[in-house]
C-alpha cells in the first residue's frame, strides 16, 4: 500500500472516530433530556386526581414521546450519512488522484 492510500485511510479513521464521538455526545444530551422529561411526567402523574386527567396526561406524554422518537431517529440517520460522507471523502480523493494519471496515460496511447 502506498503512502497516499495509508494517509487516506488514517484520515478516514480519524474522521470516523470524531463523528462517532460527536454522535455519542449528542445521544447523551438527548437521553439526559428524556430522563428529565420522564421525571417531570412522573411528578405530574402524582398530582392527577381523576381518571380523565390521567388519560389526558398519558395521551399527551405518549404523543410527545412518539414525535420525539421520530425526530431523533431522523437526526441519527442524518448524522450517520454525514459521518459516512466525511469518512469517504479522503478515500475518494486518494482514489481519484491515483487513477487520474492512469486515465491520462491511457487516453494518450
What's the SSE blueprint?
Elements: H1 3-46, H2 51-108
Explain how this protein is built.
94% of the residues lie in helices and 0% in strands. The protein is mostly helical and 109 residues long. The chain has one domain (3-98). The radius of gyration is 25 Å and the shape is rod-shaped. The mean pLDDT is 90.
Oligomer: single chain
The total of beta strands comes to 0
| Helix-residue proportion | over 70%
The span between the termini is 27 Å
Would you tell me the overall average pLDDT? 90
Query: What structural category do the secondary elements indicate?
Result: mainly alpha
Q: How many structural domains are formed by the residues? A: 1
Residue share in β-strands:
under 5%
* Anisotropy-based shape: rod-shaped
User: The biggest beta sheet, please?
Assistant: none
Uncertain stretches of 5 or more adjacent residues: none
Q: What series of H and E elements makes up the topology?
A: HH
Enumerate how many helices there are, as a single number: 2
Instruction: Return Rg in Å.
Output: 25 Å
Give the gist of this structure:
This protein has 109 residues and is mostly helical. It contains 2 helices and no strands.
Keyword list:
single chain; 109 residues; 2 helices; 94% helix; 0% strand
Amino acid at each position: 500500500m502506498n503512502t497516499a492510500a495509508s494517509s487516506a485511510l488514517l484520515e478516514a479513521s480519524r474522521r470516523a472516530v470524531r463523528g462517532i464521538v460527536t454522535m455519542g455526545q449528542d445521544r447523551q444530551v438527548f437521553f439526559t433530556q428524556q430522563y428529565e422529561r420522564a421525571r417531570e411526567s412522573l411528578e405530574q402523574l402524582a398530582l392527577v386526581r381523576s381518571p380523565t386527567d390521567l388519560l389526558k396526561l398519558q395521551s399527551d406524554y405518549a404523543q410527545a414521546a412518539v414525535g420525539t422518537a421520530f425526530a431523533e431517529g431522523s437526526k441519527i440517520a442524518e448524522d450517520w450519512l454525514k459521518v459516512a460522507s466525511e469518512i469517504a471523502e479522503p478515500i475518494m480523493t486518494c482514489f481519484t488522484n491515483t487513477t487520474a494519471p492512469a486515465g491520462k496515460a491511457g487516453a494518450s496511447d
